[in-house]
Write a structure and sequence with these properties.
By secondary structure, the protein is of the alpha+beta class. It has two domains: 178 residues, Yope Regulator, Chain: A; 139 residues, Yope Regulator, Chain: A (2-Layer Sandwich), CATH 3.30.1460. The protein is 35% helix and 27% strand. The protein contains eight helices and twelve strands. Helix 1 packs parallel to helix 4 and helix 6 crosses helix 8. The chain is globular.
Length: 361
């Protein structure tokens, strides 16, 4: 059995390394969302095209928008072992401009790169969203992700937050100085379609709250899927958690026949999972004894899972959503702890970070 155990352990180590490497960009996406939401911004757009993650945010108190494009540059595991994990991070800061067409017309020619291969990292450029009336100053940065993200799925949110908002401050100042030189000013009225756009982004806004709550609890994002009917956030815990993986699904509850008015409720379903990796015959043959906990635990091979569900109002439910996340996570931990047989030792993870002091710009 000793040979069997060593082969299993080696296989698990290689699998964990490959899994982590393939999800570093997802963890980065979660770190960006958590940082922005903690600074009073709402996630209003999230999209992945298979290579890049695209994010959009809006300031809740200010007429500002923020855009990101995140790309993992070390997807090959051998490359990552040699140079570490690098990421391309395109960051954009935007404000509404009264006459966006005029402003963009003046900037477009000067903004066109001589080299058509693409924007050069470290150079501030401008982009315009003519439909929404926002003008953006944006920059492409190559970031050493190992400074913020660790193989045990712990994220140094404080350092990442500080770096991110330092960049935002420069982009803001440069955008406003450029507009002044052109005789233009930011802060134009939002178009009539703005309210409709926010209504259509309700699902993404709730996803942002879930990701921020998960970061507070020490969990990292390893995947997000979102459509008009359902949003799902997949999370991974650091090595010192009982739970290994967590999935949170948000679905709109259909209105009952004949009901009128009022926004629908959101069904929040959270699934937790514990994966044991037996290496002895006794562990392999260990019987399953369901606990008396009110949360039902199921077993499949040597994976134990449980599900809890709650309902939260769609309108005004952001704080309630965070409360439900915290309570549901605790319920899953309590239900699955009796079945936990230890996880492979890893670097110690830090305690959950305190709420951000805020660096609004």
């Amino acid at each position: 059995m000793e040979t069997f155990a060593s082969l299993v352990e080696y296989s698990r180590d290689r699998y964990r390394e490959a899994f982590y490497n393939s999800h570093v960009d997802d963890i980065l996406m979660g770190a960006v969302i958590a940082s922005m939401v903690e600074d009073d911004c709402s996630l209003i757009g999230v999209f992945s095209d298979g290579v890049n993650h695209h994010l959009r945010f809006e300031g809740n108190e200010q007429q500002t928008r923020y855009v990101f494009r995140l790309t993992h540059l070390s997807e090959d595991l051998t490359v990552a072992r040699v140079q570490g994990h690098l990421g391309s991070v395109v960051v954009g800061y935007g404000e509404p401009v009264g006459n966006i067409a005029t402003a963009w017309g003046k900037l477009e020619a000067a903004n066109r790169p001589i080299n058509e291969e693409g924007p050069e990292p470290g150079v501030i450029r401008f982009e315009a969203d003519l439909a929404s009336g926002f003008l953006y100053a944006q920059i492409t940065l190559i970031m050493e992700l190992d400074r913020f993200i660790h193989p045990d799925y712990h994220v140094d949110h404080e350092t990442f937050h500080s770096n991110l908002w330092s960049v935002m401050a420069v982009l803001r100042d440069y955008l406003r100085a450029t507009l002044r030189e052109m005789g233009l000013s930011g802060g134009g009225a939002r178009p009539a379609s703005h309210a409709r756009e926010l209504r259509q982004s309700r699902g993404e806004i709730l996803v942002g709250e879930i990701v921020a709550a998960a970061a507070q609890a020490g969990l990292s994002v390893v995947g997000i899927s979102s459509d008009s009917d359902e949003q799902t956030v997949r999370l991974h815990a650091p090595s010192d958690f009982v739970l290994g993986r967590v999935a949170v699904s948000l679905r709109r509850e259909p209105r009952r026949f004949g009901s009128r008015g009022g926004p629908p409720n959101i069904l929040v379903e959270m699934q937790g999972e514990v994966r044991n990796h037996p290496t002895t015959l006794e562990e392999l043959l260990e019987p399953f004894h369901p606990s008396s906990n009110e949360v039902v635990v199921e077993r499949r091979h040597h994976t134990y899972s449980a599900v809890v569900a709650e309902v939260v109002p769609l309108e005004g439910g952001r704080e309630a959503l965070r409360d439900i996340f915290t309570k549901s996570l605790a319920a899953l931990q309590d239900a699955l702890t009796p079945f936990h047989r230890g996880r492979p030792a890893g670097p110690p993870s830090a305690a959950p970070r305190p709420p951000s002091a805020g660096r609004r710009i």
